[in-house]
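Progress narrative, work stream C.
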Amino acid sequence: MQLQERVLDYMENKASRPVSEEDIATGLQLNNEELIQLFTVLDNLELQGLIVRNRNDLCGIPSQMNLVIGRLSMNSKGFGFIIPDDPVEAEKGDVFIPPTLLSCAMNNDKVIARLNESTLSGRSREGEIIRILEHSNSQIVGTFEKSTSFGFVTPDDKKLTQDIFIHKRNFNGASVGTKVVVQITRWPKKRQNPEGKIIKILGNINDPGIDILSVVHQYELPLDFPDEVKCAAQKIPLAVSEKDCKKRTDRRMLTVVTVDGEDAKDLDDGVYAKKLDNGNFFLGVYIADVSHYVRENSPLDLEARKRGTSVYLADRVIPMLPTRLSNGICSLNAGEDRLSMAAEMELDINGSIVSYEILPTVIHVYKRLTYDIVNEILVDKNTETTKNNEDILPLLNTLLEVRNILKKRRNTRGSIDFSIPEIKVKLDEKGTPVALLKRMGSLGESIIEECMLAANETVAKHMFMKKTPFIYRIHEQPDKEKIDALNELLSAFGLHINKNTETASIEPKSIQQVLAKVVGEKEEKIISSVALRTMQQARYCDENFGHFGLAAEYYTHFTSPIRRYPDLIVHRLLTEILPTGKISASRTEQLKKLLPEIALSSSVRERIAADAERDTIDMKKIEYMTRFVGDEFQGVISSVTSFGIFVELDNGVEGLIHVSSMANDYYEYVEKEYALIGRRTNTIYKLGDIVEVILMRADVKERMIDFVLKDNGVYNDIKHKTEKTGTSGSKSVKNNKKNIGHGQHKNNSGNITAHGHGIKKRKRKPIRK
């Protein structure tokens, strides 16, 4: 056992109180060499947050000292939550931190918090930050403002609630209204803002493309590959050689097809299916064998591990691998030989996998299809499209049968499907949004989804049975308190999510059954929204805990190695184990140390990518809506808070109706009912209600949209913004309807200007030293 493990074991299981270094040395009977190492070991454990030193320099385990260590997730309103690092603590839930007890910590800082008694009923854990272990915001993107002697940068990230103070000597040529990158030179202290210096000027906030570029820098996304990686990519061949094919199973005779979006260029997966003589089905899923070209610890591999995933922003893709690989030799382009890792499965009419084989293959994609083409053939029965694809009609019909069988099996075991539309922003050549396109999952997408799910489960089960180190995609049980809150809501509709009487856990099928009962009912929106919020976030892990949402005992990500690093690792592990069925003891020990780090890093990178993608889409949504200020819309209440209600339009745009703009009454927030209720009128606005609203503000700079209620809003009869003020809006107002993407709206008779929340905002000024 390593010294670090021995120290932790001693402190967790043998020490009954905080201990000194001498106590540890004596308790473990350390020799001279180990004594020298002890001080470094304790420093490392403290940096990792596994131990804490108190004021008397005694060491203790955080959980035994009423402390929690984790990352701070801030809310734009000024409070935060600590997400614990320790899995045991994480199961108990996040820790709420009030604004007054943040101790100058910033969003995503690693901190230590002392647990306090909760001041609010229904909140299980509350605390105060007592130490910052690691700052995480060394560079911040924001908008620069200045006076004669100092300046400040207002962060784009609304979770960073303090402006950054800039000395005049650190302006570095920045002018008012420019988007900049600032490096922190002094962290915030009590009554003092953080200080920094401008290290990069991105451009004026109104310059084309600056909005997306700001997000790229905010999340520190790489815009280019290092020279070493580019050089390595250039050495990768452009075509498959016969030498590469020799030790692979030849599947070039199969009519493998790819099915992707119209604009996809990195094609990871191909599929093939046929009906067998015994009544079963053969399903082959063929995935680009990226691991053949990206070798472990090579420059390409290390860069891919660092990036973790490709990032799909509103106007560009930041790939995990250089284009020569992602769009070239690794992409399953039609008419080209390609190396693949295959999961070939035989499934019966109930969808059970009765046999399978995982093997390296060489394929020759017969045809590239799109979701639209598949839908035109199988759903719309388009005559021309069908005629143009007569050669693959038997294959598509077989794939449809396979999809139906697999989906039915998944539904039977309790898999939960949330029908969430995807909103795509259509941009012109200048990057200006011209339409919001709402996409629901289609049959073509569902066919590929079911094939990929089957392959992912098969690979995960295969590796689990081999008892070898592996990376799983896990989705854990919902938080108990969130399920209890959901049940409170469901009780109003005569519904309930049942728990297992023995384990007190819930089964996915319980949630699935509740959702099925409200399909098409007026309460469907509210129940689906709250149910979705009870779900935990899926993540990567080196241990198998199953996937709750899919009701799957084993699950991994195997099908997208071009754009996800965990999939690449899965392929690499399969390649290692396939020849002999096992991995050496030394390699096993190496993987046990390596895979937890990769799983954690990949999960973090995935969340960063998702946040960046969402931010760019939201920005373009707001920019698109600036032309409709003053117009009426119908929307659904998507969230209710103490300060107001959020309303989502049919085109996916969401905005706030601040409680201060609701003119006919004083409104109180009733958390258990997800509602604001008027004291005098008893008017109720609750989650899922349909309301008529007027768009009062679409502020790209502040990334905010404000609505007021049409029949209960504070607004005056003032004109739309004119071209002179440089703001979008109609010059004349007519009482007619227009189609804006997917939302219907009409101009209000008379011109409108907001009088309430959010129309004018006082500029924040930094606290002077």
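Work stream C, second folded protein:
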Amino acid sequence: MHIEIVEIGNFRKLLGVRIGLSKEKTIFVGANNSGKTSAMIALRHFLVDRERAKFSLNDFTLSHWPTIDAMGKAWEAAKAADAELPVPDLSPVLPYLDVWLTVAKTEAHYVQKLIPTLDWDGGRLGVRLRFEPREGLQFQKDFLAAREDAKAIQAVDEPQLNDDGVPVAKSIMLWPRSLSEFLQRRLGKLFVVKSYILDPTKLVDPEFGVAHPQVIGSDAEPIDGEPFKGLIRIDEISAQRGFGQSDGIKDSEDDNAAAGASATRKMSDQLRRYWNRHLDPYENPDARDLRALKAIEDAQKAFDDRLREGFAPALKEVEGLGYPGVTDPRLNISTRLRPIDGLNHEAAVQYMIQIVDGENSFDLNLPEDSNGLGYQNLISMVFRLMSFRDAWMRVGKASSTKTDMPGALVPPLHLVLIEEPEAHLHTQVQQVFIRQAYDILRKHPELEKNGSILSTQMVVSTHSSHVAHECEFDTLRYFRRLPASVRSVPTSCVVNLGNVFGADQDTRRFVTRYLNVTHCDLFFADAAVLVEGPAERILVPFFMRNQPDLHDLAECYVTWLEIGGSHAHRLRPLIEHLGLTTLVVTDLDAMTAERKTIAPLRGAGQKSRNTTLGSWWPGKDDLDVLLDVKSDEKIKVYANERFAIRVAYQCPIDIEFNGNKTEAISNTLEDALVFQNLDFFAKTNGNGLFSRFKISIEKSKTVTELGSALFEDLKGGGKAEFALDLLDIQDPNALRPPLYIKEGLLWLASQLRKQQQELGVATSTLNGVPEAEEK
């Protein structure tokens, strides 16, 4: 048994998304404000803290607020007209979580109350958890009564007059002015989470990343009680782990779903909790506890005797005051020693440091607060995972609640939610944790043996590319931001990266290996730039930082990937599924009909050997055609996916050379730089390509000769050294970027500004003037 799918709808940015869960671990990735946290909060509200979840109106998707207010106005209008009130149906706007389980027929005894029909023969089972009014009619009645009270009070208020004595509208409006305003105060009292059984035959696939939830009829009856009680144990490590706090809500001592997500997570607190659950000898003692209990009893008796002896003079002095009298009870001093008292102090957990002084060594103990936050966080999370596992498996004293039946009282499924485990951790430790976390949750004989019916699923949300780097591609779920232009407010969809490449195993293998050996921040960026080689990887960001009209890009999260013209197209399926705005900076790479590389020349029947240009965009390989492609034709817009990519390759430019105005055609970044900055390279002395370029400029009589000379110069290598030397020039603004690169970067900047506006956030400033205010 495992959770196959969860669908979240009408909850914050998640208007309707489907998230497929892997059988073991699932990793939520995505750029900032893409909905990862919303998904984790939804899981927490509906699954972890269902009975005490603090839903608010802000948890309802913003695009539904006008619908809610319109519904309230319709109720008021009907009442004012003394007409029949509309049935209060809020189902289209109510937050919900659908949980779809895959259950074998042999496990039917676990899910008896979730089986929809007698025809069910194993497979999917679905449950909807929906936040809705306790009583719809009573909710409607309470709102209308509140509105009537507000209007009545306002009606007796004296009208305000203007200077001419004419009544004007009152400036003060009493609560509630609308149904949404009513809900802001009364939501917690009037709403509750209810559960409904879903029909597996009506589950449909998402369309363009947007889920289509199953419609529940108004006559549907909710499930009594907790639908997952005894079926799923749910634990959570939240992002707010409370290090350094001395107060806060402590975790409950029961073995139910994790509580107190914001509680202090000091190691000593966790040790005390673990002791109470699994080790306390007073709790169902066995033969192994008898020696400890006898030692505690002896120590307590000896301490009592010493206390009575020590307090005897003081008590005798009190008796001299007339108390206690003949009829008064006498004082007796007694101790109560419990092993847990040894952990109830600040130094219960210490870190030992060994000091070596010559041939001698000694140990120093430091309190746990003296250790770095990274180690505290790591040790705390690992210990909590162990505690979750042992509580689930009834380890230690908890085992006394088991019956003789194997697996009895142990829920067959354990779901663990971990939010942003990377906090305070170094990159290497992040990678170690995500590699080991699931194994820790399964480190128990019952769980490790083959054929175990007990399953563990771990869900992790992260902003760390290092965590994503360590995970299999199939485990990643990408949260993608959708622009507000598509809907009234920005929302999100979720992409299962395991389905990106379909049956194309060669592309899948290449991309997976490529991302495993590069910095995998593609899943967290606002945009991507794919560059040809090391020279572009060095110089394109250099141009971006030093060109005044490109400064906006420096304020955005842009990821740079060095992929090469012959391989960039292999990232196409991934880019298209991510819907990530992408600029591909590549080379023209001219060749003859015999596939021999050559300097580019018009009218010579040349082709481009660049696979990206031929197979992705603009989908052409004829050199003369590519040279005449207009700037806006280099943009590929994906209408259904609401994003675009652009290719940037060498384009003809008009220059003046040896007194003649002519067209220059370059083949790579280096010769494009020369044509764009002829005066600079003609006057600059240097080694390697600098020296060869200067000689070629001096000796060439025509642009065609210069192009051929530069082509030969580049055969000698040294491109990376050339790029590094350019970083060292005294005035970076003296070097103009090639036209094709500047056009591409300006397009990318415009797309990111547009994206910021669509997502409802303030854009970058140009000349100190904001382009858009935050919505």
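Residues 243-264, 402-407, 763-775 have pLDDT under 50 and may be disordered. No further action is required on this item.
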